[in-house]
């Protein structure tokens, strides 16, 4: 009878007890909760649910705003920009839903075994299941798509601001839709490369997400795949920075020289609004995605050459920080379209101008009171003499 008992590090339970399926699940849940309490690195799913809910809500609001603007500017040059922006928000929304569902599934399944979570995590890293492979490919796909779309939007606006006639001749709605399809196809091809033996997706610390193999047994193909992913993403950010800088300088020069726009009278303000939104998207993407791209590339390089003693845990923590910041990008992107609209910017400008004028009038009144006080003092001194 003792030989047929289930041996556990903390609990010894007779085998007949495990004939009850509900009892088995109850014991596994209790053991997993004990492991979670003993291992504080395993996060609680509440934060993932809250992040997913906020991301879906903000993206839906931004998508409604962009859809209304697209219907209003359907036949203007702004329509292509709005189509790109709507596609970006829709991609963020889809990524939030799909990635959130896969992450929550991993939370519900548990990270590792209750008896030996470390060895179970190592086995899962060596042999990832289908949900891990799908999560890793979605991480790459929904990571590259917003960066590619932001770069395409910046290039389209740079051409529209610097060469408006050439933009009107080359950029059409049909070509814009073809460009969108090519961007999604390129991101999909990169995400599917590990299925063709270039790189691999594995479980990442603390086991609640999957990404490119950058920490455990990184080979030459893994390093090449990480370099390709980070290189494409960083190149998109750099190209967007160059295009937005050129657009911004061109608009500032036009304002300073008081040039009339060759299109409609509101075209200058529309270009300014679009460039401001693009700068907001670029800054948000740089802040949110640069840590994961840089940490992933450094971690893969270090793992390929051999981690120094004690550095593995440090780089694992940096990767967790990087993926959390990258998740914030899908939450912050919609606020660029919600807050950096022309109507909102005008209200902010009016409030700022009103406060500045109020401060100026208050300062002038203080100066006037002080001047009148000085003149009255002079008159009193003269009368006394």
Report what the structure shows:
The chain is mainly alpha-helical and 385 residues long. Helices cover 77% and strands 3% of the residues. A two-stranded antiparallel sheet has the order 1-2. A two-stranded antiparallel sheet has the order 3-4. α3 runs parallel beside α7, α5 (130-162) crosses α6 (164-170) and α8 (220-257) packs antiparallel against α9 (267-305). The chain is globular, with a radius of gyration of 29 Å. The model is unreliable at 1-41, 112-124 and 261-266 (pLDDT under 50).
Biggest beta sheet summary: 2 strands, antiparallel
Element string (H = helix, E = strand): EEHHHHHHHEEHHHH
What is the global morphology? Answer: globular
- Strand-pairing-aware structural class: mainly alpha
| Number of strand segments | 4
* Spatial extent as radius of gyration: 29 Å
Count of helical regions: 11
Average residue pLDDT: 76
Q: Segments where pLDDT lies below 50 for 5+ residues?
A: 1-41, 112-124, 261-266
* End-to-end C-alpha gap: 121 Å
Sheet-strand content, in percent, reads under 5%
**Percent in helix:** over 70%
The largest beta-sheet arranges its strands as: 1-2
List the helices and strands and how they pair.
Blueprint lengths: L5 E2 L4 E2 L7 H18 L6 H28 L5 H32 L7 H10 L3 H33 L1 H7 L2 H19 L9 E4 L4 E4 L7 H38 L9 H39 L5 H29 L2 H43 L1
Antiparallel strand pairs: 1-2, 3-4
Notable traits:
385 residues; mainly alpha; two-stranded antiparallel sheet; 11 helices; 4 strands; 3% strand; disordered N terminus
């Amino acid at each position: 009878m003792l030989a047929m008992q289930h041996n556990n590090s903390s609990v010894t339970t007779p085998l007949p007890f495990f004939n009850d399926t509900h009892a088995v699940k109850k014991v596994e849940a209790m053991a997993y909760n004990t492991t979670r309490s003993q291992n504080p690195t395993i996060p609680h799913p509440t934060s993932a649910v809250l992040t997913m809910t906020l991301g879906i809500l903000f993206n839906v609001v931004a998508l409604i705003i962009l859809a209304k603007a697209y219907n209003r500017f359907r036949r203007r040059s702004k329509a292509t920009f709005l189509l790109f922006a709507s596609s970006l928000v829709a991609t963020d929304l889809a990524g939030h839903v799909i990635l959130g569902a896969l992450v929550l599934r991993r939370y519900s399944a548990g990270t590792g075994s209750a008896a030996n979570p470390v060895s179970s995590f190592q086995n899962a890293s060596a042999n990832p299941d289908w949900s891990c492979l799908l999560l890793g490919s979605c991480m790459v796909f929904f990571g590259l798509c917003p960066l590619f779309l932001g770069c395409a939007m910046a290039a389209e606006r740079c051409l529209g601001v610097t060469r408006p006639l050439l933009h009107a001749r080359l950029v059409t709605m049909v070509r814009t839709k073809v460009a969108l399809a090519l961007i999604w196809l390129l991101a999909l091809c990169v995400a599917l490369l590990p299925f063709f033996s270039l790189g691999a997706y594995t479980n990442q610390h603390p086991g609640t997400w999957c990404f490119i193999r950058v920490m455990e047994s990184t080979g030459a193909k893994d390093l090449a795949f990480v370099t390709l992913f980070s290189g494409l993403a960083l190149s998109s950010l750099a190209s967007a920075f160059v295009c937005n800088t050129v657009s911004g300088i061109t608009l500032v020069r036009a304002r300073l020289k008081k040039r009339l726009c060759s299109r409609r009278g509101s075209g200058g303000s529309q270009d300014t609004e679009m460039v401001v939104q693009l700068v907001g998207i670029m800054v948000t993407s740089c802040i949110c995605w640069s840590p994961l791209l840089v940490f992933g590339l450094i971690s893969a390089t270090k793992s390929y050459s051999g981690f120094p003693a004690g550095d593995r845990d440090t780089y694992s923590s940096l990767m967790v920080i990087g993926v959390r910041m990258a998740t914030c990008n899908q939450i912050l992107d919609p606020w660029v379209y919600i807050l950096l609209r022309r109507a909102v910017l005008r209200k902010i400008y009016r409030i700022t101008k009103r406060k500045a004028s109020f401060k100026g009038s208050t300062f002038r009144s203080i100066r006037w009171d002080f001047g009148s006080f000085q003149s009255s003092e002079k008159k009193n001194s003269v009368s006394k003499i």
